[in-house]
């Protein structure tokens, strides 16, 4: 399982953000990114609704003695979003798109906290794998507009050939302003 190159590029910022609160991998799946963060020596909480992938992640973390805590939650359920406001140092969201959760994600970041996200765009359909429904694919230029309260550090959109397969993705790295008390 190869971690996202976007995560690797952001390593120093994720590690710095861990001083503000837990690093949380939302919809972590089998944990390619959570395991990478834990491999840096940073504790990470992986959240997913699928118990099978969480069991795999917990097993992999246990075998490698990595600091990963697995939490089962359906993030889209009415009371399923488990993160408290202002509690997280960094939130990772990779290959999971639920537009209406964006305000909850922002709210869950500690002041100064980091959001690192990457998911497929509509252009990804050309590759014949992955999601095809519009609900799960970003329109051109859409990703930064989902998080208007955050201060954008970096954003990128296009076809990435850095992983094992080409993928059309949008990426965002953004911070919650450290003095935003009104949110
Ligand atoms: C394509 S996988 C991405 C996994 C991982 N983030 C990655 O990039 O490798 C999407 C994950 O989202 C999880 N998921 C989908 N809907 C969810 C929900 N409502 N609550 C929690 N997890 C959800 C699925 O179980 C799956 O593990």
Tally of discrete structural domains: 1
Query: What is the SS-derived class?
Result: alpha/beta
Give the averaged pLDDT, no decimals.
Answer: 96
Strand order of the largest sheet: 3-2-1-4-5-7-6
Summarize the topology.
Blueprint: H1 5-9, H2 11-17, E1 23-26, H3 32-39, E2 44-48, H4 51-64, E3 68-72, E4 88-94, H5 102-108, E5 109-120, E6 151-160, E7 167-175
Parallel strand pairs: 1-2, 1-4, 2-3, 4-5
Antiparallel strand pairs: 5-7, 6-7
Bound molecules: S-adenosylmethionine (SAM).
Describe, in plain words, how this protein is organized in 3D:
It is a single chain. The chain is of the alpha/beta class and 183 residues long. The protein has a single domain, classed as Vaccinia Virus protein VP39 (Rossmann fold, 3-Layer(aba) Sandwich), CATH 3.40.50.150. The protein contains five helices and seven strands; from the N terminus they run ααβαβαββαβββ. 39% of the residues are buried. The structure holds S-adenosylmethionine.
Keywords summarizing the entry:
binds S-adenosylmethionine; 22% helix; alpha/beta; seven-stranded mixed β-sheet; 5 helices; Rossmann fold; single chain; 28% strand
Outline of the structure:
22% of the residues lie in helices and 28% in strands. The protein is an alpha/beta fold.
